[in-house]
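Q: What would this complex look like in 3D?
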Amino acid sequence: MTADDTIGTGDLVVAVDGGGTGCRVAIAERSGRILSTANGGPANVFSGFDAAVTNIVETVNAACVAGGISVEQLRQADAVLGLAGANVGDAALRLPKRLPFRESLVLWDAETAIRGGLGGEDGAAAILGTGSVFGAVHGGTARLMGGWGFVLGDQASGAWLGRRLLERVLLAHDGLLEASPLCDVILSRFGNAPEEVVQFATSAGPQAFAGFAPQVLEHAAQDDAIALDLVRGGARFVTASLKKLLPEGASRICLIGGLGAQYAPYLPNEITVMLAAPKGNALDGALAIALERYGAA
Amino acid sequence: MTADDTIGTGDLVVAVDGGGTGCRVAIAERSGRILSTANGGPANVFSGFDAAVTNIVETVNAACVAGGISVEQLRQADAVLGLAGANVGDAALRLPKRLPFRESLVLWDAETAIRGGLGGEDGAAAILGTGSVFGAVHGGTARLMGGWGFVLGDQASGAWLGRRLLERVLLAHDGLLEASPLCDVILSRFGNAPEEVVQFATSAGPQAFAGFAPQVLEHAAQDDAIALDLVRGGARFVTASLKKLLPEGASRICLIGGLGAQYAPYLPNEITVMLAAPKGNALDGALAIALERYGAA
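A: Here is my prediction, written as structure tokens for the whole assembly.
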């Protein structure tokens, strides 16, 4: 700060949570008091870097307008951004130059989500939505695992459940697997034509496959053999990942994401005894990291 | 035939084998004597319909020129085409209108390959290459199974082996699976950066994944635990499919395609005792079907 700074300048931190469907911004004083928030468009820096830049900047500006925050204050603010896609490619290096902040720390949104869920305590978390990522926090340091994406990873995720379901529908059609009621439901939705299932899969992305996950979980609850087998397979992966990650001495496990809580009934007792409700979301996590890093001493 | 037909007109059949890397044409008399053959460009009617039409017509024309066959003779000829991609979409219905023959029967190249391999005898066959398809012939009638493609099917294929290998490389990297020498070889090829494996997978098609299959088979032969597990998993699928398909009383099984023979050491005795070398290729199969259907009585 120079002697010319007006009161308040340099006093702000910005937290951003950005994903494939939208972004959220919170601007706070370095003491932690939130001054303004805003929601905006998608901000996945891997699949759409320029759109992400535009949407983040617009949403930040909207929050500034709402909170009466000046451009000069923003220029002196430090930001932590948890963004989908920041784990691959070089967006985390390129992005700060495009942002209006003094310093910008770009993290993978999995890290901010896990930090938000555990609320700064030691523990492990599973993020189970369209994709899957696992992570742990130990002494304030986060460690992430998995999240390698739809083609090679994201085991136990919604997309993983959906694709494997359709795979089994075709195996059952070929008589290599006993069909279950869920298979029949799915195949009939495709006019009982396996070719239509294949056509769908040719152009379907992770979100389209994940659209079948609710049915898998519903039918698993009704003891459908194939649905149960898929969910149990996912639960085994969740269990192995959490056990691998849980820091010694820690006993807090969070299930985050749209499918997180739905896996609970399929997890073993050694995991469920440690389950705790998430303390916050990914924006909370980004803000917590921002305050830790840039907050008032 | 009408009284106006000149000698030779209407006496020809055409066989076409078309796939993702090229097509082959044979023109024969209805007695079976081959007059001319030619090779040409790719002819996958699902991934590139118009290119397939162009390449097939050009290659047929080249065979006509080489064999001194007239346009009029071609117009009276009947054709059987075994083409990649003919099992999905409506190409099999649209294609005949674009071809210069009297009648055109468009089949999936899996059917002509299985027919060529079994040479008209009853039996079952596995086509194991970049993809996988299984089939049987019983009393001259072919039945096909599988071949649902990279995303949902093609179990035991080269692309399946390759994708599952990369999946395991990432699991081993995350410590969820014990790494094997093959894992280390593959990860080091990607500069020991799992992100690079994911980047590769994002844009890789089935053929790129199948590029890893030779290494999987090589390392399986050297008792690499992960390679062995993958190949044995594929072999179990091949076994189940062949047992499901083999017609009663038949005892001939053919392994076709670049990976076919390489699975033999991993198949159980009940299968290997029935293994027979393929009698011919997919062009032979298309020609055999053409002669059966359109040949001299």
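A: To summarize the key features: Chain A touches chain B through 29 residues (CB under 8 Å). The CA atoms of residues 56 and 120 of chain A lie 25 Å apart.
Q: Very helpful, thank you.
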